[in-house]
Amino acid sequence: MTTAAKISVTLLDDDDFPTSFQVLSKSFGHDAPLIDIYFPNHDTPSGQARGSARLAAWKQGSEDSTFLKAVLKSGQDGQERIIGLAVWTYMKEPPPADIEKVENVEEVWPDVDDREYMARLWRDYVVPRTKSIEDSAGKGIFVLELLAIHPEYQRLGAGAALVKWGTKAADDKGVKAVVEGTPVARRLYEQCGLVAEIEEMRFDVGEKFVGRRKPNLIFLSREPKS
To answer: CATH number, domain at 134?
Structure first.
């Protein structure tokens, strides 16, 4: 049996969130500015507790989002380890441009400047997926909203398995699959059939935040296959 064959993709259980959020934090480290600002202090115990709670609330509050885990089964002791996390959302309506409509902003970002910066990023972040939804003639799109693989278990096939789950779901509905991906993950997405629509997403944060790190994201999409 190959290593890839030992990896399975299943639905994430509610009690998986603490472990899954740790995977998310380790996966991105501090190399992804959007993750750093969206999940404040995600590498600390308190930040991970808050992040886990937000993911759990998201799962409970969205019927259109599917939370997945990639599990690696050890051949020696038969133990299963969560090594990856993905969230796919079927969107038929454009997401709100105002982050206050989707997050408790004062609680998540008590610092006023952090709150304003996140709001500005979010406003630009949702533009490409909004256009894809508007261009879908009412069919909607499948959005890969989150993908994280534990750094010690990358290149084993978990990322591809999580991505392909969503592209198959998109094919089944006859809709486009999209993702706002990092350059590091671009090769994986392209191997799964997604192609770049926007080579570098635009984030206009204004002079006030010129010194802050901005996300470096590519908008990729995949047309459905019959």
So the answer is: 3.40.630.30
